[in-house]
Fold this protein.
Amino acid sequence: MNDIALEVLERASQGDTGAFEQVYRAASGFVYNVALRITRDSADAEEVAQDVFMKIYHNLKSFQFRCAFKTWVYRITVNTAINSCRKSMREERDRVNDDNIIESFPGGRSAAEGAIQSDIETRLNALLGMLSPEYKACLVLREIEGLSYQEISATLKIPVNTVRSRLKRARQALLEEARKGPVKDAV
Amino acid sequence: MQCRKTQELLKADYLDGEINQREEKQIKEHLARCSECRRIEKELQVQHMLFQKTKQPQVPERVWQNIRDAIVTERLNKESSVSSSILQRLRESILAPRPVFAIAGALTAIIFVVIFAGAIIQKKQSFSKENSGESVVGYNLNDENEDLLYTLGTNIEEYFL
């Protein structure tokens, strides 16, 4: 995420739309990408990005700069994306139940199958689809945004050791999934 | 260092560059003599590259347009709700059934009644004066104009006279 001048943040917090647009231009890339990796759906990611910036707009006035603005935006993004992901999973589960499909696919099996004919992007998304939103968030913050363990800990409000163990398990799960079949070719 | 410990560190601290120098050295020594751990390290590196290779998609411009529209709509709603609440408060303060207004209303009604009644009484008095004057001046004809008495016209006038 690009740095944002304090003066711009202050003007944005006072309702200056131009300044708020500057905030958006600086942070939207990160917000959208993280949302896209966690939700794995561009429409959901757009919705998450809109939600995130409306939350920022509403709460910027009360943001006391007790933590870095970046960390604050990371946290809002990850939480909103995780919630959206959970909601989609619930809806998908309900839909499957409604359709009376008896056969249930384990974890991301269907996602792994779908990865056969796809490019790196789809393969990566397929792999990420096998992880729970919390594990995905850790991995995305580390691999895509390059956050340190300390920064991930501050963003997700979890201990550094939890960050460490989530990353370990997430990578282990991806390795196992990649070894199973088609995704291996991609990796 | 054992394979298990090495693999644990490979999957987190080592890959992410969060490891101290001593452990890094131990891992490298282990990797030099363990093919299984080397294989895992390679797989992890490839996995890491997969993330790096993915391009960062551009945010569609409609996202900002939607946000801007939402902000404008919100502001308009806020402004209209503020003005309507001012009107509402004004109306309530005027129409509020307070004792002051009740007393003021009653006093006004009393004053009005008093003035109106006074005006009526005054009018009646002046009318009776006029009538008495008329009788003195106009109709005190008595003997001198007796004929005129019969020339006045209507029965009503005759009745009053």
Q: What stands out?
A: Residues 102-161 of chain B form one domain. The longest helix of chain B spans residues 99-137. Helices of chain B lie at 3-14, 21-33, 35-53, 61-95, 99-137, 146-149, 155-160. Residues 86 and 92 of chain B are 10 Å apart (CA to CA).
